[in-house]
Amino acid sequence: MDNYQIADTLSLLSKLMDIHGENSFKSKSYSNATFNIEKLPLQLADTPREKIAGLKGIGDSTARKIIELLDTGELAALSEIIGKTPPGIIEMMQIKGIGPKKISTIWKEMEIESIGELLYACKENRLKLYKGFGEKTQQNVIDNIEFFMKNQGSHLYVNMKAPAATVEQFLQSIFGEPAVRITGAFKRQAEIITELEFVIHDTTSHIITVLEKTEGLELMQQEDNEIVYQLNSVALRLYACNDDLRNERTFYTTGSPAFNEAFRSAYPSAIFEGWEDDSALFESLNLQYIPACLREDAAIIETAKARAIPQLIQPGDIKGIIHSHSNWSDGNNTIEEMAKAAISQNLEYLVISDHSKSAFYAQGLSEEKIKEQHLYVDELNKKLAPFKIFKSIECDILNDGSLDYSDSILSTFDLVIASVHSNLKMTEEKAMMRLINAIENPYTTILGHMTGRLLLSRKGYPVDHKTIIDACAAHNVVIELNAHPSRLDIDWRWIHYALEKNVLISIDPDAHTTTGFDDIKYGVLVAQKAMLTKEQNLSSFGLGELEELLQKRKTEKRI
Q: How confident is the model over 138-156, as a mean pLDDT?
């Protein structure tokens, strides 16, 4: 081990000790030793062991650690503290602008254990509520995390929209617009993208020759008709083909392997030449058109044979914003600003659902604040009519599955969104108990983000989806499809079962700013993959329809 490796090891030990709140004197001594070791004119490996403790800035305790490293290549104290530190906390140390003390606050007080969770909390304005964090710090953390995440291998769909458009335009400028077609997982509207894929009407050798001088493109892999480049953190897979194979190549790179295998088996003699749009292919096979977003599994082919693919929900089908936060809790904007932004988008209503009192980290509303907010909403509704603001709350589901307020308070809301926000590390048994109890509460209207997952950051607690959906069906509870690009929860793969059970879905942006309304479209994109229609989505209900449904529900549940 050279001096730099030793210094780095002691520095990591010092930082982790600070994060865990351990002996600050020892931590500081290791930190000081790090500084001095890097300035030594000689290598510690070449220094007699008995003389190490006498070097400037290195005491007996630090010397013992150095000798242990030199003799074994490892440090038992470091291995031990790493073993009790979540991997996400260690990864968080790579983010500029947050040192060990701040990371300790993020972990111990905010209960955040990954970079993705931290970014989500920053976007919800939670970081600035804690001592030592301000608006500027929070924005710096957001910028630094986003920079860090850009250099990782997997990406949220939302983060690939701009790069996909830029790369497509770039390729079209070189090879001609008709010669370039985007394909793959991005075209299927997958929530996680690992590479951007394009079919190019050209030869492999010519594509490589043309692109070899492009700055930032690194050739990673080359096969007969397939080329992989690395562009910063994004992998680009280019499929070369001639005119005869262009349509077939596009079709089979768009579909998933499971879909492609089933299609080849069902239609081995399909003719791909002679059409510009693949809708002609489906017509030639007397098969209902299967949009790219549905080409995930084999079952869709039988659905298309029966011409049973419905009219998929579209962004323009959304009539109102359900699930939004104002500056009464952790939102950025006033309720009036949120309402006026919705009006400017020709929406009919806004469901304001600030956090409940247990969400202290998000300035959750006390009972008194709820009364004040409801009076304020009444005033705004008179001012903004016929637009309507519904009185709601995102009510925490507590550890025993009860909701965060008494029935007398819950009864004052037009609707209640029940969500889990705390103690997310649960067994399935514990999670199911909490969720089922909340669903059975007569005041629960919508079950919010069912698993608490954050894509690429947090798996979410384990649940039995079918049992949860069955309970929602039995108790007339709507299931949210949280449209925030980091959540997209409920997973679209379970929406089919919910629809079979006649459970309504609600595509909600969970907006903490007026710009957060735009996230609705990402919920719509994954809802399309589940063949959701506007009639099956609560936020597609017009104002009168929503009022009627809520009144009927209260009458049926007698609340």
A: 82
245 Cα distance to chain centroid: 37
What is the β-pairing status of strands 217-222 and 226-231?
antiparallel
Q: Is the peptide bond before 310 cis (omega within 30 degrees of 0)?
A: no
Question: Is residue 262 a contact partner of residue 243, using CB atoms and an 8 Å limit?
Answer: no
pLDDT at 160 over 80: yes
Three-state DSSP state, 160: helix
pLDDT range class, residue 59, cuts 50, 70, 90? confident
Backbone angles phi, psi at 275, to 5 degrees: -135, 150
Task: From 382, 376, 395, 381, select the one nearest 327 (Cα to Cα).
Answer: 376
CA distances from 486 to 100, 177, 453 (A): 26, 32, 8
Mean pLDDT to the nearest integer, 9-17: 92
For residue 24, the model assigns a pLDDT of: 86
Distance of CA 234 to the CA centre of its chain: 18
DSSP string across 243-265: GGGHHHHHHHHHS-HHHHHHHHH
Burial 385-404 (b: 16+ CB within 10 A, else e): eebbbbbbbbbbbbeebebb
Query: For residue 420, what pLDDT is reported?
Result: 96
* Sheet containing 478-482, strands listed edge to edge, beginning at the edge strand earlier in sequence: 320-324, 349-355, 388-396, 415-419, 446-447, 478-482, 505-508
Closest by CA to 192, choosing from 158, 153, 157, is 157
Query: Mind listing the pLDDT tens digit for each residue in 368-380?
Result: 999 999 999 999 9
Q: What is the average pLDDT score of the chain?
A: 93
298, two tokens: 């084999």
Strand-pair category, 234-241 with 226-231: antiparallel
Mean pLDDT of 286-302: 97
Q: Residue 215: is it exposed, middle or buried by C-beta count within 10 angstroms (0-12/13-18/19+)?
A: exposed
Residue by residue, DSSP assigns 543-558 as: HHHHHHHHHHHHHHHT
> Has residue 23 got a pLDDT over 90?
no
Q: Is the dihedral of CA 516, 517, 518, 522 positive or negative?
A: positive
